[in-house]
């Protein structure tokens, strides 16, 4: 993970110059998802939302972009760049899966409580992936082995992913909601105030 230490600094410059693009054999090992809030000006990645970027909604408030991290810079992926590499979108997604697999295998869950409400904090080796892992299918499957078919999650900021048992969802408003909103409002890397239910059927917002 030493080669990805620059991912800790999310002030990376966003590049669009193809002259700085590495070849595919080098780039494929450094392609990762980036989460970005959909309706906020706090995150400068929002400037990308009208460009030709490979992206998708992962919740009602969060988009996921794919980007290559090269020499400490962020290169958002586009169909134009894929054509320059002469590869398909499937090749990109396979690279992302492999890169995220390496991140996930070095990630642990830290049990926490606020006195009476138990929850778990996602602890990736690189904190920038703490929230992104919640939307990575194999990691979701691993969480299902612990919590059951469905579980709850919140990701108020880029480096914060929290999960807990679905049966405790009714306690969330009293136990954690205010803290989640405070984290979201005070963070320079805020993502979402949604309480999410994650299952094999997908990601469903419950409340915000």
Structure commentary:
The structure is a single chain. By secondary structure, this protein is an alpha+beta fold. 25% of the residues lie in helices and 28% in strands. The chain contains six helices and ten strands. It has helices at residues 24-27, 79-85, 89-105, 137-147, 172-175, 177-186; strands at residues 31-37, 55-57, 62-70, 73-76, 108-113, 118-123, 151-157, 160-165, 195-199, 202-207. The strands form two sheets. A six-stranded antiparallel beta sheet has the order 5-6-8-7-9-10. Strands 1, 2, 3 and 4 form a four-stranded antiparallel beta sheet that branches. The radius of gyration is 17 Å and the shape is elongated. The two termini are 34 Å apart. Residues 8-18 and 40-52 have low confidence and may be disordered.
Topology:
Blueprint lengths: L23 H4 L3 E7 L17 E3 L4 E9 L2 E4 L2 H7 L3 H17 L2 E6 L4 E6 L13 H11 L3 E7 L2 E6 L6 H4 L1 H10 L8 E5 L2 E6 L1
Antiparallel strand pairs: 1-3, 2-3, 3-4, 5-6, 6-8, 7-8, 7-9, 9-10
């Amino acid at each position: 993970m030493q080669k990805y230490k620059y991912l800790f600094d999310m002030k990376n410059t966003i590049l669009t110059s193809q002259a700085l693009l590495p070849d595919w054999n080098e780039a494929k090992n450094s392609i990762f998802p980036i989460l970005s809030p959909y309706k906020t000006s706090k995150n400068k990645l929002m400037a990308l939302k009208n460009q030709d970027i490979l992206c998708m909604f992962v919740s009602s408030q969060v988009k996921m972009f794919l980007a290559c991290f090269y020499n400490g810079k962020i290169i958002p992926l586009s169909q134009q760049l894929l054509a320059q590499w002469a590869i398909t979108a499937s090749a990109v997604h396979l690279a992302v899966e492999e890169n995220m697999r390496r991140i996930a295998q070095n990630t642990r869950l830290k049990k926490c409580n606020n006195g009476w409400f138990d929850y778990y904090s996602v602890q990736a080796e690189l904190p920038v992936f703490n929230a992104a892992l919640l939307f990575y299918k194999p990691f979701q499957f691993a969480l299902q082995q612990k919590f059951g078919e469905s579980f709850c999650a919140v990701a108020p900021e880029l480096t914060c992913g929290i999960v807990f048992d679905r049966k405790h969802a009714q306690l969330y408003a009293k136990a954690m909601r205010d803290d989640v909103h405070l984290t979201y409002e005070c963070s320079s890397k805020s993502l979402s105030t949604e309480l999410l239910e994650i299952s094999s059927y997908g990601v469903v917002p419950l409340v915000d």
